[in-house]
Structures are given as structure tokens and as C-alpha cells.
Amino acid sequence: MNLSPHQNDNTSTVHSSAQPRADEGLLDYSHEPSWTQSNLLVHCEKPFNAEPPLPALVNAGQITPTDIFFKRNHGPIPDISLENHQIYIGVQRNTPDIEWKVISMRDIINKWPKATVTATIQCAGNRRDGLAAVKEVSGVIWKSGAVSTAAWSGARLCDVIRDVADIPADDLSRMLRDFHVSFEADDHVCEDVCYGGSIPFRKAMDPLGDVILAYEMNGQPLAREHGFPLRVIVPGFIGARSVKFLKKIIVQPQESTLFFQRRDYKIFAPT
């Protein structure tokens, strides 16, 4: 989607326009972080997917140290500038048009109170090795270490949407019942135009839902592999919904149409 630059207090309306997805052979892995950790079990290097040995995870206690927190990626890890990164927040009502507003990382950090939520993230494929022992399955063959807990700090998503999205009170009750919030990453993957997913709007707007736009992990700025400069943290949902490298937040009448929401991370009952 090509968007022209906006001032932070301006709203523009644009149409969605799909960009071609990346060919797997053309994905650029030349700017990856240096993977020197010998304390992780590496399942794949491109994209980088690794987990800690279970004894190390258990011995770490309640909060998983950042260096052994499991790493799940679907493509190259983007090299994003904190100062230049912008977040597009859109509302799609009953037309294809999306009303966009744009905020900066400095807005996220300075304009909203910083909340800290201790949350466990688990990859939906954790312990897939048990399934693979019975029958061939697709996906990373994780053992039991694709689950970790951290203290995440950032702005509450409900506060940001409330202040930026300009949703009339008369529409709010209907949208809480029927709408979704879609998240899109500033990255490149081979399955679609980017990584992304969505959650129900009511979860996003629940002050007790603890959904935050995190820019810190365990008291430090997010590491690149964990979503720098911004990721959403959705407690109680599979890790796939805690989208990293966050670029777009869209309030819309349907769940995300991206591959990772519609075709992956789904349970399809047998016919």
C-alpha cells in the first residue's frame, strides 16, 4: 500500500492496493543480527527460528531472560530506524476506503503513559515434535521451548485507538460487537505482502485486556529479533497475534485477510 506522507494531525483516505509478495529466493537476509548464541537450539537460520533448551528455560524462573527468549520469524528481520518509523492507524467502516492517521515512535513513547504487562508468549507450534513423531506435519518442528515470559512495556492499545482513531460514540457499541483490529508488520515474507494478523476489537479496547504497543522488553528497548521498534502484545492469544515490527493498525469490519490469519494458524475441522 503506497501512502503519501501526512502530518500527525491530518487524516487522509486511501484505497488498499496489494503489493506483490516476495519470492522466497529474493528475500534479503544480508542484514540479519549476529546469531552467536550457543545456548539456543536453532531449527532454521533463514528465517531464524530458535528456542532455549528446556532446562535453561525452567531454571530462568518466572521472567525469561531476553537472550534465551525463543525467536520466531517468517522472513528477514527488518533494520528499522526508531526516529524514522511511523505507525499508520486506520479505520475502515463499510467501504473499501480506510481513513488513516499517522503517528511516530516518539508519539507512542511520549504521548501515552507507559504500562508494563508481564505476559507469556507461546508459538502455536510449540511441542510440534510430539505431533511429528506420530505423523508428518508442516511447520517448524519445535520442542517444548517455544514459550517464554517477559515484562513488556509500552502504550495501551485502547488508549491509542481512542485518542487517534476518532470513532464516534454512536458507532462504538456496534464496532465492539462486530469489528476486528488488524496488525501489519513492516517486513517481507514469501506467503503474502507482509506478516500480520488480527484480534477482535473488543479485546483491543478492553482496559483489562492488557493489549499494549510494546517498545520495551524486560526493561530494555526491544531487540531487533523481538520486534524493534514496536510490536503488539496480546495476552491470552497465540503468539502469532503479537505482531512484531508493527507498521499498521486497522480497525475493520472483518478479520485480517492476510495469509497468516486466513490460511495459517487456523484449526480446520475435518469434512
TrEMBL record:
One GO term (biological process): sulfur compound metabolic process
GO molecular function, one term: sulfite oxidase activity
Gene Ontology, cellular component aspect: mitochondrion
InterPro entries from the UniProt entry: Mopterin_OxRdtase_euk, OxRdtase_Mopterin-bd_dom, OxRdtase_Mopterin-bd_sf
Pfam families xrefs: Oxidored_molyb
Top-level taxon in the UniProt lineage: Eukaryota
UniProt source species: Entomortierella chlamydospora
Protein name: Oxidoreductase molybdopterin-binding domain-containing protein
Domain Oxidoreductase molybdopterin-binding residues, every copy: 74-258
